[in-house]
């Protein structure tokens, strides 16, 4: 036992004395000299790097640096790392990578840098002899890398983004090599062992120096002075890679970089990099790449495209131009996610740049063109943007683009005043275009806009024009109450029975209602008997001889909803859809204008009810000239509902008969809306 104990002690002392004998600096130096010696002695210039000992020596150098750091006291720099920095090894390697000699050297250098930054725990990017060669490698992004080094470049950028996420103050070093605190170029060579870099300032102090007048200043969108490739340009370039895995990894790191919760880093991204113009310009490029021959209906029916899944599967029955459309909407989805998740400074800057360069610079000219096919395609694209964008900042820019930034209403109040926002006025005029297709596309656009949670839309398009309630018949002061009880003729000369129904205020509405002198204020709540009369007024608009729904199913308020979900009613259905959406909106002025059949109207004014009366009067004169009108009307309804094959129907006056069906269902829908809105007013 004593002998075994002595042998164990001897072995332990041997292990303890053997470890210090490992000369790490000498081994590290030998490996580096072996690499440089290759360039002095090689005679075969065609031999690729992977067939030399360079990759092995680079890996040995990495292992030595990692091992040295583990054994080194915290906060101190080991001799191998000192040698790496003092002899500018990274500078030399970046030069060899640029020369791409021997062939494939660039990939091995990129791999060495990414592993060095990923494995070392001590901060390295603060050193001039580290971040400068890193920038030199990033500058290679403009070179023709080919498909082989893309993966290694992405690994380097991912390592940089991870380090920046851990220490956001590093971002300005990587972008331009500037001190985040003072904004001056760093002239900091390697510091001796034990020396530490100048401590970074806290974010508040950084913001004050970056923007002395106000720490939370707005970002001015100016083109960065330097257009040299850097982290952002290289990252976005890889986002466009044809290799799906590389592009996906790049897009994930782009979102990681822009979501860093650090004011100074966000300002550096928004002001000192080309992030905003690069993101917006690529969206413009992809939009321009959409073929003009794409069917607008394909844009409308295109399923939502996710940037994560774009290009993951190829459909066999793809329509012409589908790949271009999906590429555009995938990048749009990436922009939307970026703005939603990014720091508010970055989100605002990207949104504003997209509005300037894409909405105004590209899309506006396409929307205002004269070609009917071009108008249909651009309107379909705009409608898809309204439907797909969900980030508040970008959605706000989109709504501002469509409506205009001015405070004035979109439609002129008198014929002598021209609206300042030409696009919005053009879109409104197209709702009643000579081309039914353009009318439908534009109405579909406004219907999508009305669903957005932005108060400016209803205010600008509708409520501004109802604010003064100029559609009401004015009365002298003191006669407002008697006016509501008087029987007033509508513009068609038809007498409407008395009904004092007005409705005011709906739960949850945030709009302020103002009344003008001489204008009767809407009453606070409708009585049940008033609601019943209004509902009956809309249900009885269409004469019984023009009704067909009762022959196919039970009549009720849900009939229209069922029918509307299966019938393709073209323009008429689109018009009624928009009007129904407006009628549902909880604002008293809009409610009385659209849903009060007995509103006393000012001369020359029309309401929805008075227009419906005129339309039905004209309809009744025309249907008497149609042979077998009831039978043919029922056949048309059955055909629209899919109960009768279209090829079996040989019916004249089809458009008029379809219009009768739509009108009947629309009146039922309005009656249902009045009833549902009145139920909200009944106390629980």
UniProtKB/TrEMBL annotation:
Matches recorded under InterPro entries: FHIP, FHIP_C, FHIP_KELAA_motif
Pfam families: DUF5917 (PF19314), KELAA (PF19311), RAI16-like (PF10257)
Membrane-spanning intervals of the chain: none
Top-level lineage group: Eukaryota
Boundaries of every FHF complex subunit HOOK-interacting protein C-terminal domain copy: 567-642
Family designation: Belongs to the FHIP family.
Record-given protein name: Family with sequence similarity 160 member B2
Organism field: Podarcis lilfordi (Lilford's wall lizard)
């Amino acid at each position: 036992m004593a002998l075994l104990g002595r042998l164990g002690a001897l072995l332990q002392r041997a292990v303890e004395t053997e470890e210090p004998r490992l000369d790490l600096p000498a081994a590290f130096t030998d490996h580096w000299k072996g690499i440089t010696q290759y360039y002095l002695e090689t005679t075969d210039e065609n031999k690729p790097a992977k067939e030399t000992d360079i990759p092995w020596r680079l890996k040995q150098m990495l292992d030595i640096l990692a091992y040295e750091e583990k054994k080194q006291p915290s906060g101190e720099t080991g001799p191998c790392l000192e040698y790496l920095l003092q002899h500018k090894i990274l500078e030399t390697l970046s030069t060899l990578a640029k020369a791409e000699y021997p062939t494939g050297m660039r990939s091995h250098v990129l791999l060495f840098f990414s592993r060095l930054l990923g494995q070392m725990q001590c901060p390295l990017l603060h050193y001039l002899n580290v971040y400068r060669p890193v920038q030199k490698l990033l500058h290679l992004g403009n070179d023709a890398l080919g498909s082989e080094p893309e993966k290694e470049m992405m690994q380097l950028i991912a390592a940089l983004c991870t380090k920046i996420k851990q220490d956001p103050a590093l971002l300005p070093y990587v972008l331009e090599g500037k001190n985040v605190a003072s904004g001056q170029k760093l002239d900091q060579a390697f510091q001796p062992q034990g020396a530490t870099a100048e401590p970074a300032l806290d974010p508040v102090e950084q913001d004050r120096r970056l923007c002395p007048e106000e720490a939370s200043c707005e970002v001015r969108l100016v083109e960065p002075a330097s257009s040299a490739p850097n982290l952002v340009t290289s990252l976005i370039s890889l986002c466009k890679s044809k290799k799906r895995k590389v592009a996906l990894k790049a897009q994930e790191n782009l979102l990681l970089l822009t979501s860093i919760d650090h004011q100074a880093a966000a300002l550096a991204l928004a002001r000192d990099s080309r992030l905003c113009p690069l993101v917006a310009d690529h969206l413009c490029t992809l939009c321009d790449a959409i073929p003009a021959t794409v069917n607008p209906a394909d844009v409308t029916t295109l399923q939502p495209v996710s940037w994560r899944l774009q290009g993951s599967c190829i459909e066999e029955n793809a329509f012409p131009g589908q790949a271009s459309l999906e590429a555009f909407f995938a990048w749009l989805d990436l922009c939307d996610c970026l703005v939603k998740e990014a720091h508010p400074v970055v989100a605002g800057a990207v949104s504003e740049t997209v509005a300037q360069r894409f909405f105004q610079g590209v899309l506006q000219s396409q929307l205002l063109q004269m070609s009917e096919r071009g108008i249909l395609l651009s309107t379909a694209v705009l409608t898809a943007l309204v439907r797909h964008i969900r980030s508040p900042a970008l959605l706000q820019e989109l709504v501002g683009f469509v409506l205009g930034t001015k405070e004035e209403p979109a439609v002129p109040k008198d014929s002598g005043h021209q609206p300042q926002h030409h696009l919005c006025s053009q879109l409104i005029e197209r709702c009643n275009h000579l081309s039914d297709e353009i009318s439908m596309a534009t109405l579909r656009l406004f219907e999508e806009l009305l669903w957005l949670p932005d108060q400016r839309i209803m205010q600008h398009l509708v409520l501004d024009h109802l604010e003064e309630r100029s559609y009401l018949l004015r009365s002298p002061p003191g006669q407002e109450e008697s006016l509501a009880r008087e029987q007033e003729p509508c513009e068609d000369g038809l007498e409407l029975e008395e009904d004092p129904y007005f409705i005011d205020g709906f739960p949850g509405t945030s709009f302020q209602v103002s009344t003008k002198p001489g204008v009767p204020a809407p009453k606070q709540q409708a009585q049940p008997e008033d609601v019943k009369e209004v509902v009956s007024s809309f249900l009885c608009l269409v004469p019984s001889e023009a009704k067909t729904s009762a022959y196919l199913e039970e009549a009720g308020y849900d009939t229209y909803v069922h029918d509307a979900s299966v019938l393709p009613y073209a323009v008429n259905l689109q018009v009624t859809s928009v009007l129904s959406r407006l009628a549902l909106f909880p604002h008293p002025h809009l409610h009385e204008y659209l849903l009060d059949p007995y509103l006393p109207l000012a001369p020359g004014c029309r309401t929805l009810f008075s227009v419906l009366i005129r339309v039905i009067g004209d309809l009744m004169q025309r249907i008497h000239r149609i042979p077998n009108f009831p039978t043919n009307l029922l056949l048309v309804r059955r055909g629209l509902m899919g109960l009768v094959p279209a090829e079996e129907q040989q019916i004249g006056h089809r458009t008029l008969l379809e219009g009768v069906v739509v009108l009947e269902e629309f009146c039922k829908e309005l009656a249902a809306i009045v009833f549902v809105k009145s139920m909200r007013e009944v106390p629980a």
